[in-house]
Amino acid sequence: MTKRIGAKVVRAIAELAALALLAAIGICGSSFAQDRVPVVVTEHGDNSPAQRDKPYIILVSLDGFRYDYAQRYGGRNLLALGNRGASVPQGMIPSFPSVTFPNHYTIVTGLYPENHGIVGNSFYDPAMRLRFVYTDRRTSADGSWYGGVPLWVLAERQGMRTACFFWPGSEGAIGGVRPTYNVLFDPRVPNDIRVDQAVEWLRLPPEKRPHFITLYFGDVDTTGHASGTNGPDTVEAVRQLDGVIARLVAAVALVHLPVDIVVVSDHGMINTQGPWINLQQFADLSGFETVGSMLYAPNEAAAARIYTKLKGASNKFAVYRRSEVPAHLHFSGNARIGDPVVVPTGPYLIRAIGSNDPKEVPPKGMHGYDPSTMPEMKGIFYAAGPDIRPGAKLQPFENVNIYPLLAKILGLNIGQIDGNLSVLQPVLRTFTGVSSTTTQPLPQLHRPGALVPPQPQR
Question: What's the pTM?
Answer without folding.
Answer: 0.88
